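The passage that follows is intended for readers who have already worked through the single-chain material. We present the inputs for a multi-component assembly, then the predicted structure in tokenized form, and finally a short commentary. You are encouraged to pause after the input and sketch how you expect the pieces to fit together before reading on.
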Amino acid sequence: MTTAHSLLVEGLTLGYQDRVVIESLDLTVPPGRITAIVGANACGKSTLLRAMSRLLSPRAGHVLLDGKRVHRMPSKEVARTLGLLPQSPIAPEGIAVSDLVGRGRHPHQGRFARWSREDDEAVAAALEATGTLELADRSVDELSGGQRQRVWIAMALAQRTDLLLLDEPTTFLDVSHQVEVLDLLTDLNRTLGTTIVMVLHDLNLAARYADHLIALADGRLHAEGDPARVLTPETVEAVFGLRSRIITDPVSGRPLMLPIGRHHDTAPAA
Amino acid sequence: MSGSVTKTTQTPPAVPAAGAVDTVSRGRHRRGRRRLAVVVVLSVLIVAAFAVTLMFGRTFHPPADVVRVVLGQDVPGASFTVGRLRLPRAALAVVAGLCFGLGGVTFQTMLRNPLASPDIIGISAGAGAAATFAIVVLSLEGAGVSVFAIVVGLAVAVLVYLLAYRNGVSGGRLVLIGIGIAAMLESVTAHILDRAAEWDLQEALRWLTGSLNGTTWDEVVPVVIAVAVLAPVLLSRAGDLETLRLGDDTASALGVRVDRTRLVLIVTAVGLIAFATAAAGPIAFVAFLSGPIAARLVGPGGSLLVPAALVGALLVLVADFAGQFLFGVRYPVGVVTGVLGAPYLVYLIVRTHRAGGSL
Ligand SMILES: Nc1ncnc2c1ncn2[C@@H]1O[C@H](COP(=O)(O)OP(=O)(O)OP(=O)(O)O)[C@@H](O)[C@H]1O
Ligand SMILES: [Mg+2]
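Having made your guess, compare it with the prediction:
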């Protein structure tokens, strides 16, 4: 294949029991690009990601991966194309880091699969890329929150999918590791053409790293497109109920959002 | 916009440094070797314990006689004791132990909770109550009792699972519900026993404590068949089971069909437990202990199915031998394993309680 995979949702309605979380959403993930989803807590970001990776069945509408409905595709086939890092994965007791990362190879292995050289290479590359190689033989339950988060990212990388969905990949990470992870995802995108979709809470990092920004409010699409166009005081007000100013980030030339609280308003809001 | 590349093939391997690949594969081999060593040592111990059980008892039979009996030759004096009494008994100890070990560790791993073993969450209690009911009230015997117990054991498993189901199953909720159901079933059993005739009581008690007394080949064969059919099913799912430990979301993102896999695992594990229980009674805590012991021995890495099965077999063999000959009185195997398991159960409950009751 020479074109990137396409992922889009049509008329997607999602919910749990009797509450609807996302309502008739239409969305196209730009292939080969980095997309960031932003929105307030509980607006349905994780729900959307779970549906896109077939963890949650839609009430209405569908998710199309390369034109096929993901919910009708064989699960391993989906898992070879599309990877997901959930928001709060469970770290089992007594499993070594490199074995955990090796679980990412599961969709590539048969029922009685032998471990291949390629599996080892994928795991090693993922550990190296996330700076967790020296943790390889440690047990996952004795790691710090940030180390563990990087191990989870390594697991998603070891899956070697062309599409990668990440739910808040930077939680638990200190500022330098946040930037490192986002740089790493950018590398992946630039060198391998991996399509990245990630939920981020830091609007400024989202605006800096994403080619495409999606702002959700109450389960509906509020705005999407070039971060410079989407990240405006109006969007921030509508999505987060927060007054803000937007300036140009002197480092990246992307928009930079400065929140205005109740105590620090020295200049009139734009 | 930055010029991102829109080229995608099956992602080419980003080549890691050779040293990194070595680190990964060496670590994996080291853990694999430890697991293999544990499996080999356990197998040797099982063979040794098996041999000892055949040779020693109220009368001693030398190894040469034992071998000849096992090979099917007629050895005066030894053929009856070794061939008819000791051999089926030891064989049942091994296969029942395998069943309990496999069934227990499957549940514990799948539900990510050491307390979630079939003998804690009411499946054994269900089989026991059913057997008692069948013996005392329905006056059934032999295979009828077994079938009844197996069906009810499965039904209890399904019931506990359904009651605990809410957007997927959490181990903690299932354990609490299972313990509740187990308590209910045990009071039902007590009530039935209360009105049992003397002879029925004997028979029912054997069912409740777990015993290998008077084992015949008729009891061994169904369990052997169960192991031969069901164990390969479980082993073929070992990778799925390991992946399920990462949580339902991660597992399905990795291509595991979570609900279907869980169904297969539950039916297979309950089947193993039920067949073993039907033949030997619910030998206390073997299912519950085997997994954690195997985990200690193996350390981090790899599936626990095979090691736990072997630990189960060894536990039952040794406990049965000890129960017969180590104390002045003969105790059924279930009493010995019960005494071994109870402190661990208390320890686990205390530990989860200390850790904030997150069960
Ligand atoms: N398993 C569930 N069962 C019932 N309701 C759920 C479940 N998961 C999420 N919800 C509800 O769906 C809504 C959206 O949740 P979701 O996790 O998608 O939010 P989010 O945008 O990812 O929030 P956050 O930024 O806090 O992660 C919330 O109101 C939440 O309570
Ligand atoms: Mg979320």
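Commentary: Chain B touches chain A through 48 residues (CB under 8 Å). Residues A 45-46, 87, 167 surround magnesium ion (ligand 2) (CB under 6 Å). How closely did your sketch match?
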